[in-house]
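Friendly challenge for the regulars: who can give me the structure tokens for this chain first? No prize, just bragging rights.
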Amino acid sequence: MTFLEFIKSRRRKAVLFFLAGFFSGGILYYLCQKPAGDALAALEENMVLWAAQEREFFQVFLFILWERSKVFAVLWLAGYTKICKTYICAFLIYTGIQSGFLLTFFIMIRGTRGLLYWLASGFPHQMILVPLYIYSFYRLFERKREKQTPAILFITVCFITACLLEAKFNVPLIQWLYKE
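First reply, four minutes later:
Bragging rights claimed.
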């Protein structure tokens, strides 16, 4: 099965898993708003304090690389086990929950301007990470182990590029938004 056939055959199911998580994340935020009100207020205060601090690029890059690598490594390790398909479905739901929770958080705190904060939180690195995750799902589902070296090299270069973009452009963008 080619990559495009893979996307066509699994697109609907993947979108449903993501949307189920997305709406669950929004509902989760709404339900936790009163019980976890102090923690959510502290989260907003920490974001404002974080935005006020200047950070060295290399330090930010290493932090982002570490955080993103953990998620990516678990994805690939689970991909070589019998729980691969279940893990990928859970991964899509979890990613949706994160995204829905974050969108609801920003909208509740910042109003309609929260949509801008939410969009900025994923730009530009998600434009590389999302296709990279989809390509990784393809490689894991289809068990394309032959000629693995070029694929691993491609995935590694794209992954590091996404981390560099996040450190170089996303972090300053979010800091700029919070300083306004």
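Residues 148-179 form the longest helix (32 residues). Helices lie at 3-32, 37-52, 57-79, 84-110, 114-121, 126-142, 148-179. Your move, everyone else.
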